[in-house]
Write a structure and sequence with these properties.
Layout: H1 3-15, H2 25-38, H3 41-58, H4 71-87, H5 93-101, H6 117-120, H7 123-127
Helix pairs in contact: 1-2, 2-3, 2-4, 3-4
């Protein structure tokens, strides 16, 4: 994976020109890594939250109690990718993202190790950050 692979995805996401079918789990992860390398964590999270909500609306989606933006899942992946970056500080963004995407760390189902399916499906988890009811994922310090 090269930084050039990130550019069309990140730029398309930010500018709302990324085709809906290209907004895959892998694209979400790449965008999370990119935002986590560009901004301090809380700012990165705030920016990606706003951008996901705007992107969803731009492609004709809605952000409701049952669809669109999901606060807890976004928070989880932002924390998880930030922790992965901090654990691999000797690697470039390209290298760390490639390593991540080739590992079990990138599995879409990973949040289910921390959250029950019922909790993740809840309106509460969609609308606000909730801690895992199976395991708690803490953000590592720098």
């Amino acid at each position: 994976m090269k930084l050039s692979d990130f550019k069309p995805i990140v730029v398309g996401f930010i500018n709302h020109t990324l085709p809906k079918e290209d907004w895959t789990h892998q694209a979400h992860v790449m965008v999370a890594f990119w935002f986590n390398t560009q901004y301090p964590f809380e700012e990165a999270f705030a920016k990606i939250k706003a951008k996901i909500m705007a992107y969803n609306e731009a492609i004709g989606g809605l952000n409701t109690d049952t669809a669109g933006y999901h606060e807890t899942i976004t928070w989880f992946w932002m924390k998880y990718t930030k922790n992965y970056l901090l654990a691999n500080i000797d690697l470039t963004l390209d290298e760390v993202c490639q390593k991540f995407l080739e590992s079990e760390n990138s599995l879409k189902e990973l949040p289910l190790k921390y959250y029950s399916a019922e909790l993740l499906a809840s309106t509460k988890a969609r609308k606000q950050r909730v801690e895992g009811d199976i395991l708690v994922l803490n953000l590592k310090s720098k």
